[in-house]
Amino acid sequence: MHIAVLAGDGIGQEIMTEALRALDALGLDDLRLDHADVGGVAYRKHGRPLPEETLELAKTADAILFGAVGDPELDGLRRELRVESAVLGLRKELQLFANLRPAKAFAGLEDLSALKPEVAGAIDLLILRELTGDVYFGEKGQRTTEAGRREGYDVMAYDEDEVSRIAHVAFRAAQGRRKKLCSVDKANVLQTSVLWRKVVEEVAAEYPDVELSHMYVDNAAMQLVRNPGQFDVVLTGNIFGDILSDQASMCVGSIGLLASASLGTSTRGLYEPIHGSAPDIAGQGIANPSAMILSAAMMLRHSFGMETEATRLEAAVAQVLEQGVLGQDLGGSASTSEIGDAVVAQLA
Amino acid sequence: MHIAVLAGDGIGQEIMTEALRALDALGLDDLRLDHADVGGVAYRKHGRPLPEETLELAKTADAILFGAVGDPELDGLRRELRVESAVLGLRKELQLFANLRPAKAFAGLEDLSALKPEVAGAIDLLILRELTGDVYFGEKGQRTTEAGRREGYDVMAYDEDEVSRIAHVAFRAAQGRRKKLCSVDKANVLQTSVLWRKVVEEVAAEYPDVELSHMYVDNAAMQLVRNPGQFDVVLTGNIFGDILSDQASMCVGSIGLLASASLGTSTRGLYEPIHGSAPDIAGQGIANPSAMILSAAMMLRHSFGMETEATRLEAAVAQVLEQGVLGQDLGGSASTSEIGDAVVAQLA
Ligand SMILES: CC(C)[C@H](C(=O)O)[C@@H](O)C(=O)O
Ligand SMILES: CC(C)[C@H](C(=O)O)[C@@H](O)C(=O)O
């Protein structure tokens, strides 16, 4: 088990420390951890947010634990030097095309959501976002129109292979859940979506046990507010997934508890909390490490097939919550290390 | 005052009847109403969702009152015959580039929102969505990749003139409100957004009294759930606006009460409720005509500069709500015509 540990910026380092302690407490054999720089910290040390050695490590490791990147002081840099390019570069270079974002209400914490507790409490969905195509990676640039005006452009596109591989992941995920899949697109306007819908329908033929529906993205954004409990697995493209997965996380309310996985065709995956680098609270020891620990659990499950250990980690985090050991983000006062201690104690 | 009345499909006819009664009750001089077919009803009668004579009328009228289009039985038609093409065609042909979608909580109705009453109750925002550019109107189609795979594509683009004209509308709108403008884009990924942000900044120089901020669209989708009360005017492009404006409406909860205006450079505008044709309840006389009546009020304000009459109409709708004359969508039992009657009675 060779893990690339990319803690990154802001609270990334603090929460990673606790996730590694929790992993350690599981007493796993053959755990090899290699640390490398990514994001703003990598730019400051090496002049690039995704140094060559970091990328090499990520490519050779079995899995990547990723903290967070983001450094407001570096926002002014040109595109290739900004932290986003590290995120996009890792996804593309490792072909991590499937982003899994489970959003589930935590019992007792429904009140943290801006949604009514009964609405938030019903959330138990998985967003499957395509991560290496769409308007993110098409041709893009600045040009001059015939009328001599400045214009920015980005080409949105999906080919059938890109759609089909993520669709298969989504259908299989639905089979392991409540067997409902809602594919979100804008097929009444976009040709990219017309192909998307067609290919999803074709793939559906192989999964007769999964109930497939289609929804336009504007309606999906409404339904995620009105009644998010209606969704099981939501499949969508890169840009719509960017928007809807963040919206869904916020509907749950406790984004300090939400983890994510980005997978390719192999078992290699990248695992990260959905919250960001939170520069405002970095270095204070008050960040909630739970989402990072839960990301490590996802890693054990998806990259190493260690369902038992993954479940143990998740249960430990849940028990700590039930004990009322809550970080400031959840209305409590436990520090980063206190939460980590409590999780380790549970695992002992 | 020459008004093109395009009632459209489903509940469109029923709610339009009440809006016209309300307009009539205002006792306006020189009101000329010309009716024409649009949407599924137009397709069935004339073979096209936007017949030439309808488009001509819309182009020559001073304003367009638009009900709703949408007919599930016609969803299988090819693109140019589907109702969406009427919507997009009107926007493009009339160059209605500025879509105004106010979303405001109605006192006493906060509980209809899935958001907590104190969160929903604080909503008072205006979304300004660009309506004639972006990935909606760029080159699009199906093609074959070099590897021989099917691919769908759509070009997203904005030029500086398109951004600047909607930005001016947004800044002026902000001046008439709480003087806060939040421009939403995805400038960390999209070149279209990089230009968008640059031009918005340039236009901002002319409006020093307006406080401008920028937000990524994924964050905006989160903030609209977490704390929608933070927004005053939200400016965004066509596709992000499609998603965010529907999300914002649902946050308010009572979408039967929300109106919209689509404007160009002249005072000609198209006014429509944000809800759709609701085929499930069409013809039953139970649709809530309030949003249609409020759309007529927006028309009086924006196309005819009749602020007094617009306010009278809006006040009448608000009073009827306060009297507890509520449609089924708001938990009451008033019929379409009963709500219309009550509004007319208020105006008398
Ligand atoms: C940082 C940014 C490029 C990224 C994205 O848009 O994909 C982020 O928002 C995310 O969702 O992981
Ligand atoms: C019907 C459709 C083309 C349209 C759009 O996407 O603009 C609708 O969703 C809207 O928001 O008016």
UniProtKB/TrEMBL annotation, chains A, B:
UniProt subunit comment: Homodimer.
Reactions performed catalytically: (2R,3S)-3-isopropylmalate + NAD(+) = 4-methyl-2-oxopentanoate + CO2 + NADH
Membrane spanning stretches: none
Molecular function as annotated in GO: 3-isopropylmalate dehydrogenase activity; magnesium ion binding; NAD binding
Cofactor detail note: Binds 1 Mg(2+) or Mn(2+) ion per subunit.
One Pfam family in the UniProt entry: Iso_dh
Protein name as catalogued: 3-isopropylmalate dehydrogenase
